[in-house]
Amino acid sequence: MLYLHSNSASADTLEAPKASSWRSAYDTSPRSEVDRVYDDIFDAVMDRRLLPGAKLTEATLCKIFSCSRNIVRMALSQLAHDKIVVIEPNRGAFVWQPNAKETRDVFEMRRAMECMTLDMLVALPDIQTRLLPLYDMVARERKAFECGDRISWIRLSNAFHVELAHLLGNDVLIEMLHSLCARTTLIIAYYDTPGQSTCSYLEHQDILDRIAQGDAAGAKAAMHHHLEDCEHRMNDPEKGPVDPWLAISIKR
Amino acid sequence: MLYLHSNSASADTLEAPKASSWRSAYDTSPRSEVDRVYDDIFDAVMDRRLLPGAKLTEATLCKIFSCSRNIVRMALSQLAHDKIVVIEPNRGAFVWQPNAKETRDVFEMRRAMECMTLDMLVALPDIQTRLLPLYDMVARERKAFECGDRISWIRLSNAFHVELAHLLGNDVLIEMLHSLCARTTLIIAYYDTPGQSTCSYLEHQDILDRIAQGDAAGAKAAMHHHLEDCEHRMNDPEKGPVDPWLAISIKR
DNA sequence: TCTCCAATAATTGTCAACAATTTATGTTGA
DNA sequence: TCAACATAAATTGTTGACAATTATTGGAGA
Fold first, then answer.
1. Which residues on B lie below 8 Å from A77 (Cβ)?
2. I want to staple B219 with a disulfide (CB 3.0 to 4.6 A). Which of A126, A212, B166, B210 is the partner?
């Protein structure tokens, strides 16, 4: 039985934001049943409770969420639109298994867009003040890493990048980076060698420092390196996932 | 009665690509019923047969597409995910009415991302050759404009920007620009003064020339100006749509 | 022992019906 | 004449059932 519900997880002790809770705090629109299912599956994928290639059988999800198949199908089709799952007609929904090309494209866009973001950030007048919450976030990220709280660490690590976009206040950019970070998490879950996690909070801190100093070029170089490092840590996506079980057993 | 089906329109004489037909030609995945409804509504919005604020009643769409409400709801929820329509709980789906903030955000991102694209384009080795289809596209755009074929003109005008991204071969970028262009079309439909259409194909041609010459700065300046011009042509989004009927009668 | 094929089981695609909510209409009273 | 309220109509949210497709199982024949 899949363990999907995340409310009871001990991962929230550090108050790491869920991956799905990135929307504006002012968004007062009521969350529908579909949104609930969408968010829970999304979080499960981000937290790696659901791994790439996993089959998402509608009937199973109905039981988990105590709802009808229609709700599940709606949520799945939206997840497919966001490239979190892939729907194969008449075969069902599977957690996205990024291939080499997709991996390259996502990382290339992350580098391009995040460097672009940095350029816009250093141009802000009161950037130093606005950076303070980010420093706090990095501190929590470090704490999560040291505690071995992997789920909180992943969440905070992603949130860092989205939060940088938040400082610019452009909702379109925020959404784009959110989507890119989510897909990156999936890529890492599929390709990265487990255990070999570098402590990215140091690099995050470095990037913040350079922004605060108004050093656009330095910040961009650091970000570029940070992301390139992450991409290269993938074990040659051409050869498929590291963990052979991912390729064999999950997708039935 | 809404006139939605676009197959019979005379707009296709110039072979302008439909707004929804931007996907890779290699995408062989079978289009489902939901995709058909999604694409047709999408095209109707892009062609301005459906204007911002229009109520999309599920039962009406069922009759138009001869399908069940389930299909329609699925398509609408995906259109909502792409910010083409807005779903108000228990009230229904409406074609998106962009506000001033959203308009600003979309244009800001278009400027940033398209300039970024140009930077990457001039770095390509064989850019001159690859630009040829684009020149052809601009020629057709000019023809459509001179014929007064507004629908083809809008389609080709958008396709130009997406096609530039296509040259880079990054599917993530392509999708982002497609989404941004679609939203821009909606913004223009809502705010722009009709009749006051500048002949953008000249500016498109100019941008191509500068890329071909390897003049990144010049191309970016032209693109920046092109988009800023377009944004400023909006009649002060703070004051709502130009055509008062849009604000009053459509949204019931 | 292996491949091919048929029968069965499981899963997805589609639809129509019912419940909940919102919108429109008509009436009353000041 | 207008606002407030009650009633009726229209629309959306949700569910379960049936048809179509795919996956699995088991057995026959080489």
1. 34, 74, 77-78
2. B210
Distance, in Å, from the CA atom of B78 to the CA atom of B42, rounded to the nearest integer, reads 11
Residues A156 and A223 both lie in one domain: yes
Determine, yes or no, domain membership for B33.
yes
Residues A88 and A120 in one domain: no
Range of the domain at B219: 100-232
The values of phi and psi at residue B54, to 5°, are -60, 135
Which residue has the least CA–C1' distance to nucleotide D21? A90
Using one digit for the tens of pLDDT, what is the confidence trace for B138-195? Answer: 999 999 999 989 889 989 999 999 999 999 999 999 999 999 999 999 999 888 766 6
* Protein CA A102 to sugar C1' D30 (Å): 46
Residues of A with CB under 8 A from a CB of B: 29-30, 32, 34, 70, 73-74, 77-78, 81-82, 89, 101-102, 105-106, 108-109, 112-113, 116, 120, 170-173, 176, 180
Give, in order, the Cα–Cα distances in Å from A234 to each of A23, A151, A156: 29, 19, 20
Are residues B116 and B175 both part of a single domain? yes
Residue-level pLDDT at B200: 84
Are B51 and B118 members of one domain?
no
Nearest to B43, CA basis, from B87, B93, B92, B3: B3
CA B100 – C1' D11 distance (Å)? Answer: 30
User: The CATH number of the domain where B159 resides is what?
Assistant: 1.20.120.530
Residue B234 β-bridge partners: B192
Q: Is the CB of A102 under 7 A from strand C?
A: no
